[in-house]
Amino acid sequence: MTVNSVEVRHVSKHFTLRHTRSLKEMAVWKSRGRELSNTFLALDDVALNIQQGEALGLLGWNGSGKSTLLKLISGVMRPDQGSIGVRGRVAGLIEVGAGFSPDLTGRENVYLNGATLGMSRRQIDRLFDDIVDFSGVSRFLDTEVKFYSSGMFFRLAFAVAVHTEPDVFLVDEILAVGDEPFQRIAVARIQELCKEGRTLIMVSHDLPMVERICERGIVLREGHLSHDTDITSAIRLLRQTDRAKS
Amino acid sequence: MLPLREPGIGGGLFYVARWRFLLMLLVRKELRVRYRGSVLGIMWSYVKPGVQFLVFYIAMGVFLDLNKGTQAYAVYLFSGIVAINFFNEIFGNATRSVVLNADLVKKIYLPRELFPVSMIWVALVHLVPQLIILMGGALMSGWRPGPLNLLAGAVALIIVAVLALGLGLLFSAVNVLFRDAENIVDLFLMVGTWASPVLYPWYKVRDNVDNWVWVIYQCNPLTPAVELMHYCFWFPATHHLTPHARFLANAPNLPTWSLLSIATAVVALAVGQLVFARLQGRFAQEL
Lengths: 246, 287
Prior knowledge:
The complex is a heterodimer.
Chain A: E1 4-18, H1 23-32, E2 37-51, E3 55-59, H2 66-74, E4 81-87, E5 90-93, H3 106-116, H4 121-135, H5 150-162, E6 168-172, H6 180-195, E7 199-203, H7 207-213, E8 216-221, E9 224-230, H8 231-245
Parallel strand pairs in A: 3-7, 3-8, 5-6, 6-7
Antiparallel strand pairs in A: 1-2, 1-4, 8-9
Helix pairs in contact in A: 3-4, 3-5, 4-5
Chain B: E1 4-5, H1 13-16, H2 20-34, H3 44-63, H4 66-69, H5 73-100, H6 102-107, H7 114-140, H8 147-177, H9 180-192, H10 203-208, H11 211-219, H12 222-234, H13 243-249, H14 254-279, H15 283-286
Helix pairs in contact in B: 2-7, 3-5, 5-7, 5-8, 5-9, 5-12, 7-8, 8-9, 8-12, 8-14, 12-14
């Protein structure tokens, strides 16, 4: 039996780009008939069901609406039209390290970040050693994070994020940092999460990696869902749109 | 099986209780960040109100002679200052809290009410040392509070916290759209100390302005809160029997005004939560 883990029901999202917030400029511009703001359609009537346990790659060039869609699924933003349904807990690796505080130690940040991503104290206590082992920064656990190298910082943040045990897992361009050995561990860990039956939605411009992890691919173009197929075809279609454009 | 749920919809303030653990960590982070790289650290929460008290005491008590008209003026003054500081800290910090946590707000969904609410706990951490000093000073003046006095003090601090949280929710949400809000709040805070009977006794207002101004003055929810603080900490530290002390401790219709003040604070909280819930859908894209 297949169950929908995420339902995106005809969702649209537009952004208002305000050109000024200064009262003076607003008055001047208004009097000259210049527009104070314009709207920009980031997602246009996107409909999509994602089944439980599926690994989905969201593909598209810059500005196609991928990240906006992820933010809508995570709840950070709300759609203007349509609705979204998610089964279980979503955790976003939308940006690793968001919610880290440079003045706290590594240990304190594991707790703070874990709690931010929706973990309970007991859950973090239980997984703490795993997280630290995975990150490989155990020696610096009681050092303030601001003294970490960017690689160490990333590894600890990533370790927390992949241990949050969410039902739906959002990944946005997070593997760009980190050296090759760590990337290998990271990819293995993501694949492991998929095997446990968690739903994965991934955004990355690293197409070979997406192809390795995901089964299904969605191509977004200027806010429209243009293709929904297996990942290999999706990547081919994405590359064709590039050729068509140029 | 778990139901399909719409992401990004919280239950407002009621939902915050479920995030107690994160709330506690946020409070700890805030305190840590506030005192990072500082030698005195949390001791600053004794030094600052101490200096503030001295300045007011010398200016108002000595230079303007209020010292002579009022028994234990130092206790009178400080009990008001403690309440106002509590208010200012919650309101001021809460207003900035959402913008300061823009990183989190933009990237991870959590009930955003957590940020303003956490400021109550931060302010409480700073309130406790002030209360201890206040009680010490009051005891030295012969403070012997009864249950009614203590109840008044508790009610005063609850009024202050509820009101400040309500206004803080309101202005923190508006501040995301227009950063002017934090400057407006700074103005409020500046006026607040003078628009309630912290530095001077209430009758100076009644005797020097038209009646309608006096009514408005009492409508300020902080006015009864400060009077309740006086009733808790100052009145039991005076020689109750002197007519002047009795007169000062019993502003006209204080119980009625206190009830009104409680009602105002609750309304402020409801309005603040409503506006916050309304605007929070736009936080991530406006920050």
